[in-house]
Amino acid sequence: MDGEQAARWAAAQEGVPVGADLVAAALRQLRFLAAVDRRRWLYDEGPLLDRAIRRYKACWLPLLDKHTKGVVVDGPLVVPLDCEWIWHCHRLNPVQYIRDCKKVYGRILNNNNVESSTQTKSTLESEKVWKELYPEEPFELLFTRTFDTAVDVNPAGAEEDITYDLVSAVKRQSSFYYQVGTPTMHDPRFLQEALARYKAFLYLIKMNQEKGLQRFRVPTYDVDLLWHTHQLHPITYRNDMVKLLGKVLEHDDTDADRSEGKKLDVGFTETTEQFESTFGVRYWKAGCMYRGNVPSPVTSTPQTFSAEVGTGSYICKAQKDLNALDVTVVELYLQIVDIKNLPSAVQKENVYVRFAKNQSDMFISDGGRLDISTVTGKNTGVCLQCEPTGELILAVMVDQLSKKPEPIGKVSFPLHDLTGPDSKLSFEKWFELKAHGGHAASPPVSLRVAASATVPSSAQKVFTMVRMEPFSLKSCLLPHSIKDQNTGSWTRFVNDCGTELIRLQIREHKAKNSMAVVRELVGVLKSTKKQIQLAEFKENKWTLKDSNLPISHGTDGSLLDLKGDNHLIKLYRGRKLEYERKCCSAHSEDVSAVTAVKFCAEHPYGKAVALLDTEAQLIMVNEDWLLLPWISISVLFMDGDGGTKLGGGAMVQKGTVFGSDSIHTHTPADTSHRDTHDTRAGLTRARPDESYFGAGTTYPARI
Fold first, then answer.
1. Using CA atoms, how far apart are residues 270 and 239, in angstroms rounded to an integer?
2. How far apart are CA 8 and CA 279, in angstroms?
3. Do 464 and 491 contact (CB within 8 A), yes or no?
4. Strands 500-510 and 531-538, sheet pairing
5. N or C: less crowded end of the chain, CB within 10 Å?
6. 328-458: what fold?
7. Phi and psi of 595, rounded to 5°?
8. How confident is the model at residue 439 (pLDDT cuts 50, 70, 90)?
């Protein structure tokens, strides 16, 4: 950032008016969007969404009109959730919202002294007023409720006079929470930086307007979250935009084609170039880029529960002895922006950077290569996952055609400086290199590095299943097809470092007091060397020992169901939800995988918590309490001795999954002066089955 760029950045921070606390309001918006996402029937076109829109027009807006004229309740007026969702989508077209309010009510209906139902402990006063005005209409719209009568039309004519297509507006906003509902977006440090970037984004629009330029400007998702938050304060947003631009800035979110060369793609590339040349800071940033399409749902009907699921959902005596390594992970975006003070004998176009960790890392093995942006003329960087420990080493190399690449020097920085609690989760600055060999220079060679990271989070646990065939002379001499099936084999579960966690074996033996054959699944923990019984086969199905997760036949398309206390685990064939592959359509039906999806009050539509890949012979687990049960279930699924009944007719045979009815063989938006936007931007998050954005993978600043 040179002097002129620093001056522009300061002008943006000081000169762009924002008359509301957008960081606190953004956190409230995220909580509200999470509540709506638990009621996805508010996303889908149909009777319930139509009802919500009618209630918004005929009930909420007239009540809000009364409230803005005079106090109708003691304290803030609480808005019903369904009405707030429609109000939310309406306000995200600020020009249309202002036009509709003035047409029907003669003024803008503001959000002052209004509170979301997700932010208050009591709605009694607001419910009382609602019931007095609309005695036949419930305060909250429920998924299970049916209606025989239509909402009474508001005498002021809102239902007829507001012609804006709210159904389409809802559809356009239905995927937004998936893009922003991440731990990083909830971090106040990240949001504070997002506010600064939002002001800089508005400053670009002002610059273009002053030059008479019509440019399509596309925000990243952190900027868009703050933009949405600003618009949810209608009068504040109107006043701020009129002061900055002389008019209300439009927010047209109708463009959705992200294909290369299309409006969004070109607009994002141009926005990136203008942002970086104007301010001297990177536009791409970890945690705020496009995450890909919303995963395909496993159900359209929410599961209902009486309470939140507690910790320790699976109680097993052996669970406390299962010493699985806890690993923390961050997503890191790294870009080498520039280099200066190179020795005169070194050609700049032959220089590149190698990056690596100074200690072992679960996600980075040998590091990778990075080109220098000012040399290539391309805005390229690397996006990867790594542990937020140790140091990242950057070695500047000279590529020599006839010789091995030669190092000029290196620099390193602690990842804690980037990801620690006192960090801003990003930086861009010059580093002086420690010279190598005869490359000492005065002034020293310096490297400009831009780095950003998501907040640290627990990494999912990944284990490979290693089958150990028992040794016997008989098994060596006989063909595989007729080997002794009663000689059980062990299955070891090992992590990426080759460390064994546990080994399991299915055994058969005769009962002590009868001739009946007893079948059981046993395990030996590496940490204790003790043998434990994990499951037993009785009454024609497997039962997990010491567990509150009984296995039953699957319902609604699942293979199996495991019903716990206030939660339900359903096993689906294929990669579902968070494990869904998005790279190509060929992976849309991956029958070699089984996904465990947890339903609870927080996730009524399901959350993928574990995966079994029968082809790769590995498991992934996102929640610690499920680790031992999933290890046990995975071995039972992989058992290949003619089919193991797990429950109610669902059978698994190696190479084939048998269900009850089938067999599958494994094999950003427009501004008022055409500075338009739709959230666009490149960094699709790493899929769990791919190499965690393997080292050396580069992504251009466009998709």
1. 28
2. 6
3. no
4. unpaired
5. N
6. Immunoglobulin-like (2.60.40)
7. -110, 135
8. low
| CB within 8 Å of 249: residues ≥ 6 apart | 94, 202, 205, 241, 671, 672, 675
| Amino acid, single-letter form, for residue 500 | E
Q: Residue 441's pLDDT band (boundaries 50, 70, 90)? A: low
- How many CA atoms lie less than 13 Å away from 293 in the CB half-sphere? 12
> Which of 115-119, 186-190, 560-564, 645-649 is predicted least confidently?
645-649
The whole-number average pLDDT for the span 51-62 is 96
* Residues contacting 251, CB < 8 A, separation 6+: 92, 93, 94, 227, 228, 231, 669, 670, 671, 677
In whole angstroms, give the CA distance from residue 58 to residue 88. 16
CA-CA distances (angstroms) from residue 147 to 36, 61, 144, 264, 267? 21, 21, 10, 42, 45
Integer CA distances (angstroms), 55 to 60, 62, 136, 150, 255, in order: 6, 10, 12, 9, 28
Give the bridge partners for 340, in sequence order.
Answer: 446
Q: Report phi then psi at 243, rounded to 5.
A: -65, -40
Query: Can you tell me the distance from the alpha carbon of 205 to that of 240, in angstroms, rounded to the nearest whole number?
Result: 14
Mind spelling out the 3-state secondary structure of 321-378? HCCCCCCEEEEEEEEEEEEECCCCCCCHHHEEEEEEECCCCCCCCCCEEECEHHHHCC
Residue 580 backbone zone (phi > 0: left; psi -120 to 50: alpha; other: beta): beta
Dihedral sign, Cα of residue 262, residue 265, residue 271, residue 273: negative
The segment with the largest mean pLDDT, out of 84-88, 217-221, 677-681, is 84-88
List the structure tokens of 112: 């002052």
Tokens 């998702």 map to which residue? 221
Q: Where exactly does CATH 2.60.40.150 map onto the chain?
A: 328-458
HSE (side-chain half, CA atoms, 13 Å) at 418: 30
> Cβ contacts of residue 329 below 8 Å, gap of 6+?
362, 363, 385, 386, 387, 388, 456, 457, 458, 459, 692
Please choose, from the candidates 470, 472, 551, the residue with its C-alpha nearest in 3D space to the C-alpha of residue 505: 470
Helix axis angle, 22-37 to 81-91, nearest 10°: 120
Token output for 110: 């503001």
> Which of helix, strand or coil describes residue 58?
helix
